[in-house]
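Database export, one record per block. Field names are fixed; values are copied verbatim from the stored entry.
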Amino acid sequence: MAKEKWYQAGLRFECSQCGNCCSGDPGYVWATKEEVGRISKFLGRTDGWLDPKQIRRVGLRYSLTEKPGGDCIFLKRDGDRTGCGIYSVRPLQCRTWPFWTQNLSSSDAWNEAHVICPGMDQGPHHDFVQIETTRTKRSW
């Protein structure tokens, strides 16, 4: 019999639009060529690509860039309000937060991520199947 996951009973999450998952220490927001194309179209670009200020090549992959200070290039701040400038076409990495394998590896890992994400343990309940479907998703 397979070992039960610690989140077998499900978890609660609702995005609070705090922007914390879109800022902070430098890192990578991976985007496939297909996702880059969607973002480009959404932004009204005709070349199917993004401005070099918005995307960078990392090895064989692409990552969205960051503003000075660590905010994602598409994070919009207006006073105490934040939002994603490409929310409807954001990459899969963004769509699956906080149900990432690293956050679900243990309850301690979940609690550590919760420190930066006030939406964790809030809002609607996501059952085990929903969480696993999100965690293992490979494309939109």
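Remark 1: Helices lie at 33-42, 92-95, 101-104, 107-114, 128-135.
Remark 2: The mean pLDDT is 95.
End of record.
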